[in-house]
Design goal:
317 residues, mainly alpha, 78% helix, 0% strand
Length: 317
């Protein structure tokens, strides 16, 4: 269903429709993203070496976030293509996505993931009676919000506050997303070795130190290096949160709980950049750094409220 929504939506965008239809098409793109986000996270987080597998999954997300804007910008600015021509590539990719996933998961019907024996109420309703989905959802709301706000406002900050040129400032965003990508892949192996709870605490402490360096040292190159390493240590936080949720919850609630938490993360991506922009319009874009630092501190506190994973809950399946 997710790839089908992608295919139909990108087909509509490729036809360069009027603006209202564009808005509707993007709604269905987002709906497809949400379905696939919940499904992939729930599926991979139950595999052997879940942290490593989730690191690769979310690392490719970061890779796409890095390369997509570069490709689109090059095609529009240098080749002279119209903006909607980039979606020809997206349409082709969605066709491949639809064919591969349909063939791979055709036999994975809903009956295989139906209610547990004796379960009387719906899975989503049951999942929301647990504390863990709410805690992880609030955590991801803030985490994704901080990630997207930082990535979205970084160019403006580097140009206005650090005095960078447009190209160099734009490359700091590439460095941030590349750091996020590499961190998710590499630190996924570290997280699995030392445990999610301790690993995330360490990542937060290092990230807050890097954020302080980024904020307090007014040098363009120092800021560029600091934000790349900040992306590196922020990267594994989302996958680790999903893995912890699957270890703390019954298996039949994984899709509902993770879908709810991931949806809240998407809400953070919409809410926090808008909030930062509203504040920056009044106080200046320099408020970005203390806001992100404060948010990281709050997220660490939320993480510490999650129950400890007992030995019988810690799995490698």
């Amino acid at each position: 269903m997710g790839p089908g929504l992608h295919t139909l939506s990108y087909l509509a965008i490729c036809l360069h429709p009027p603006y209202p239809i564009l808005v509707v098409a993007y709604i269905f793109v987002g709906y497809g993203h949400g379905l696939l986000d919940a499904a992939w996270n729930a599926w991979l987080s139950n595999m052997a070496n879940a942290n490593e597998m989730m690191g690769f999954l979310h690392g490719f997300y970061g890779l796409g976030a890095t390369l997509g804007p570069l490709v689109a910008t090059s095609l529009i600015a240098k080749v002279g293509w119209p903006w909607y021509a980039f979606y020809y590539f997206m349409l082709g990719g969605s066709f491949i996505e639809l064919a591969v996933l349909t063939a791979s998961f055709w036999k994975e019907t809903g009956k295989k993931h139906s209610r547990a024996p004796g379960q009387k109420k719906g899975q989503t309703r049951e999942a929301l009676t647990h504390r863990v989905p709410w805690t992880v959802a609030i955590f991801l709301l803030g985490y994704v919000g901080a990630e997207v706000a930082l990535g979205g406002w970084l160019v403006t900050f580097m140009m206005r506050v650090r005095g960078g040129a447009p190209f160099e400032s734009g490359m700091t965003v590439v460095g941030f997303w590349m750091g996020l990508t590499v961190g998710r892949v590499i630190l996924g192996f570290v997280t699995g070795k030392i445990g999610e709870r301790l690993a995330v605490i360490i990542y937060f402490i290092i990230s807050m130190g890097l954020e302080l360096l980024f904020w307090l040292v007014p040098r363009f190159h120092v800021s560029a290096v600091a934000v790349a390493f900040l992306g590196f240590f922020l990267g594994p936080l989302f996958p680790a949160a999903i893995v912890v949720a699957t270890k703390l919850l019954p298996k039949h609630l994984h899709i509902s709980a993770i879908g709810f938490a991931a949806a809240c993360g998407g809400g953070g991506a919409a809410l926090f950049p808008f909030a930062v922009g509203a504040i920056a319009e009044r106080a200046g874009v320099q408020v970005l750094q203390p806001i992100v630092l404060g948010l990281l501190a709050v997220l660490l506190g939320i993480w510490l409220t999650l129950p400890r994973i007992k030995k019988h809950q810690s799995h490698s399946t």
